[in-house]
Amino acid sequence: MSYPGVLDTHDLMVHDYGPGRRFASAHVEMPAEISPLKSHEVLDSIEHYFCDEEGLPLVLHYDPVVTFDPKDRDLHHWMSEQVKSIDPRLTIHDVRVTQEVAPSTSRSTACGRTGSRSRRRAERRMVPARSCTAATPRPSAT
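Above: the chain's sequence. Below: its structure in token form.
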């Protein structure tokens, strides 16, 4: 099975909490040059397939990969060779070269929030856009 624009997948995690209480998550690498809207459309179609056809709710994380920069390709190749020299079974992923940006004070304040009020606010935002027909209610968090 293949989908347009998908370069690779990694970090597949399948959670099984008993009969009818299974879900999965994975990271999907796609070219950064593709429109984020198009990439999102492809990821949605994969999630819908697994939900509708396999009965497995799936959440995919989009990892953009720069495919047009020779420096990035060279760095990735060099790193892959170094890792394989340690153990041929090892691979690398999520290699991204960025310019350093000074941390934002407001961001670190927002990320540093703790307590039940912030947790409740975050839980309200985590409502699925589409529920899987094969999914059963999630166990309550205690």
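Residues 121 and 127 are 11 Å apart (CA to CA).
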